[in-house]
Design brief:
two-stranded antiparallel ribbon; 13 helices; Rossmann fold; binds iron/sulfur cluster; binds zinc ion; alpha/beta; single chain; about 300 residues; six-stranded mixed beta sheet
Amino acid sequence: MNCTKCKTKAVIKLPRHHAAFCKGCFTGFVHDQVAKAITSQKMFGKDDRILVAVSGGKDSLALWDILLKLGYKADALYVNLGIGTYSERSQEKVRRFAEAAAAPLGATLHRHTVEQEEGAGIRELAQLVHRPTCSTCGTIKRYQFNRAAIEHEYDVMATGHNLDDEAARLLGNVLHWQEEYLDKQGPNLPASVEGFAKKVKPLYRLAERELAAYCILNGIDYIVDECPMAQGARTLLYKEVLNRLETESPGTKQTFYWGFLDKQSRKASASTTMTEKDQAVLHPCATCGQPTTAEVCSYCKLMARAKTPSAS
Ligand code: SF4
Ligand code: ZN
């Protein structure tokens, strides 16, 4: 098997693109896909300051690496969830990458430790408020990433969601006809109101296995284990189903998700509609000032309940 581009020995086959690449051409292909995502979706420019949400996993570390190599001004934020050795090991991966690869390019790593800032690890907090761990985690991460982006005046926040993540999420939203979520499923969510950071997903054109291969070929050491709380999550089932379809018919995931984006972009300016809708329903949280649809935002409610668990 030879590289489709330079004809030397290929190291990876990409059935969905009818192509195979050597290490150098594959790295170029990955960078091109990200560059294409950034420009076609008008995510950000070379002068913008970007905050990357990093977890220690392959996607977010690859994203940070690619943005820096493409010449963007990208810092990162790591949230330590306090999930035993998993959090310790993932933090160590992030710290090493930041020191060896990001700092020499002038990039900074910010860190937020849930045990210190919220008073307990994510599992204990979830128990205190009688909510599933992943939903508690989602509330805290969304809040803290947005807060860090606003406080440090970043122009945009970038997450490492890949094609598999987005296709699985789309499948879930379609299966349950969650129209409100469908409206917000794009890779570029505008900063619709003051206090909300713009959010983008520059890896949406790349599959999970392509990002794993990118990390391995480019010496990026990431945490291979999934978060222990992820076991049994519905998204994993959707990913399995999509992987079966992809094996039978390469390109299914991209046809599904990119097709959705195509339809979305043809709808009367989706981002304007989203901004108008947000502006109509969002106002500052009475406790912290971050935008919310209720009087008090879900993070502040969660923290209040965690402090008085008997009241819940
Ligand atoms: Fe958080 Fe759940 Fe994801 Fe773990 S699996 S990082 S607890 S949302
Ligand atoms: Zn609040």
